[in-house]
Amino acid sequence: MTEDWRDSQEILVMDGRIKVPYAWSAGEVGTTYLESLRDAERFLGTRCPVCGIVYHLPRMHCPDCFEACPEWVELESTGTLVTWTIARRPHPALSPLAPPFGFGVIRLDGADTGFLHLLYGFGVGSLRSGMRVEAVFARERTGSILDVSHFRPSREVV
Ligand SMILES: [Zn+2]
């Protein structure tokens, strides 16, 4: 095999900066969901009338059978940690929390699907798939998914 220019090429790195302000419409379902978090500290999902799947985050239409999902279902603020990873460095774009914090997929009690949110207030090495977690709501809520500050290990008595 002959040596080609790629074997000795110095890879250049260019510094850049991207700032992209934007507004995103939450739509009807998203607005109802976020208002419920903001005003009542209550999680909502939607149920597919054909499959019976309870979606959280709520869906206007079932992604499996495409049926409309008009039924709202109130969910618990406790759930099960499905999977997770830990961030050991600050990441202000993704989390207002100081490290170590985690990102976890959480399936709330009453829902059939999981969603991604922040994990905090756990001991190093204590996170496990299948562990019980509970939501901690932000004191000041604005109609954002961060109205739920994070999830922590559950303090529920079983
Ligand atoms: Zn369905």
Amount of beta strand: 25-35%
Helix content: 10-25%
Please give the CATH architecture.
Beta Barrel
Number of beta-strand segments? 8
The domain count comes to 1
Shape: globular
Mean pLDDT: 92
As laid out across the biggest beta sheet, the strand order is 6-5-4-7-8
Q: Order of helices and strands, N to C?
A: HHEEEEEEEE
CATH class wording: Mainly Beta
Rg over CA atoms: 20 Å
User: Are there runs of 5+ residues with pLDDT below 50, and where?
Assistant: none
User: SS-based structural class?
Assistant: mainly beta
Please give the count of helices.
Answer: 2
CATH fold type: OB fold (Dihydrolipoamide Acetyltransferase, E2P)
Heteromolecules bound: zinc ion
How can the largest sheet be summarized?
5 strands, antiparallel
